[in-house]
């Protein structure tokens, strides 16, 4: 894996979108993330997946990243990666010491500049930098921010912490300290942040999963969260992240609906785990779709 220091911002009208990469590179064997991604399926798409999204060794190239959305009135940080100093079931994510905050600063933002933190869902790789370790305590990393979570997401993980064992510890060290600090707000899945940014409910990956829609000057974009983990799922929406999706059936329905909605729409789509180029457009391709990166 590699860490990216700085990326240029994308523009959506007057909105800028910068990405802050915690980790990026060849990460997972296809069958480990998407059991249905057989060599035959990969071969159908190798021509457009390589070299950006699939390595020569047939390992999925992915990113763990945040997006900083700058609207006219708000600075919004979307998803907060894995985080440092945290005990995780995945040894590659445990006790990290990565320069995420330096990368954020290199993109032009101090932690104090963030007005809103929006977590598309409460999986371990989307909430980690919500908090940092300070004098032996977990405290909010972004002291001036309001942290947005959907009510459905909060209710689910609060009542069923044992559903996915890999996700146990992040509630204690990355969500509850924010709630206890009085910085959390629980909202509906269609909550409007302002005239330019609002949530779009997209359940299945988790019960309260939501995307972020953006609009400015006739231009639109959507930060899709984990509706799709990898661009191959655009072309093969039936590929399921079986052990990551809380409800794989609903996740597939949501993904298909999303692709139908955004195909040929001219709206920019950003995947939370898509490696660079991480933004693009959904194009119809026969009975399926293709991801066309910008």
Protein model, in words:
With 294 residues, the chain is of the alpha+beta class. The protein has a single domain, classed as Metallo-beta-lactamase, Chain A (4-Layer Sandwich), CATH 3.60.15.10. It contains 8 helices and 16 strands. The chain has helices spanning 30-33, 39-49, 100-106, 124-127, 151-159, 168-180, 232-235, 248-262, and strands spanning 10-12, 15-28, 60-70, 75-78, 116-118, 131-134, 137-140, 146-150, 184-187, 192-194, 197-201, 210-216, 219-223, 268-270, 279-285, 288-293. The strands form 3 sheets. It has a 7-stranded mixed β-sheet with strand order 1-2-3-4-5-8-9. A 7-stranded mixed β-sheet has the order 10-11-12-13-14-15-16. The longest helix is centred in the C-terminal third of the chain and has 15 residues, at 248-262. It is globular and about 55 Å long. 46% of the residues are buried. Mean pLDDT is 94; it is low at 1-6.
CATH superfamily: Ribonuclease Z/Hydroxyacylglutathione hydrolase-like
Counted up, domains total: 1
**What's the overall average pLDDT, rounded?**
94
Q: Into which percent range does the helicity of residues fall?
A: 10-25%
CATH class: Alpha Beta
Structural class: alpha+beta
Output the CATH topology: Metallo-beta-lactamase, Chain A
Cα distance spanning the termini: 23 Å
Largest sheet: 7 strands, mixed
Strand content: 25-35%
* Helical segment count: 8
| Unreliable spans | 1-6
* Number of strand segments: 16
CATH architecture designation: 4-Layer Sandwich
Trace the largest sheet across and list its strands. 1-2-3-4-5-8-9
* Series of H and E elements: EEHHEEHEHEEEHHEEEEEHHEEE
Shape: globular
Radius of gyration: 18 Å
């Amino acid at each position: 894996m590699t860490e990216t220091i700085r990326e240029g911002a994308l523009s959506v009208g007057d909105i800028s979108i910068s990405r802050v990469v915690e980790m990026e590179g060849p990460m997972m064997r296809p069958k480990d993330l998407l059991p249905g991604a057989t060599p035959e399926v990969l071969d159908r798409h190798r021509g457009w997946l390589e070299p950006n999204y699939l390595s020569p060794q047939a390992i999925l190239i992915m990113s763990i990243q945040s997006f900083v959305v700058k609207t006219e009135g708000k600075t919004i940080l979307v998803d907060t990666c894995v985080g440092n100093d945290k005990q995780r079931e995945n040894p590659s994510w445990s006790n990290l010491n990565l320069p995420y905050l330096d990368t954020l600063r290199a993109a032009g933002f101090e932690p104090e500049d963030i007005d809103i933190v929006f977590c598309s869902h409460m999986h371990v790789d989307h909430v980690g930098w919500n908090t940092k370790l300070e004098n032996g305590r977990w405290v909010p990393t972004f002291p001036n921010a309001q942290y947005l979570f959907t009510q459905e997401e909060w209710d689910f993980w609060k009542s069923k912490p044992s559903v996915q064992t890999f996700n146990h510890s992040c509630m204690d060290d990355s969500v509850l300290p924010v709630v206890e600090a009085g910085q959390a707000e629980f909202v509906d899945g269609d909550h409007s942040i302002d005239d330019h940014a609002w949530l779009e409910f997209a359940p299945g990956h988790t019960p309260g999963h939501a995307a972020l829609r953006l609009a400015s000057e006739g231009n639109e974009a959507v930060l899709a969260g984990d509706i799709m983990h990898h661009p191959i799922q655009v072309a093969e929406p039936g590929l399921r992240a079986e052990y990551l999706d809380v409800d794989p059936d609903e996740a597939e329905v949501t993904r298909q609906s999303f692709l139908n909605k955004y195909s040929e729409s001219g709206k920019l789509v950003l995947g939370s785990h898509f490696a660079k180029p991480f933004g693009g457009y959904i194009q119809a391709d026969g009975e399926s779709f293709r991801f066309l990166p910008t």
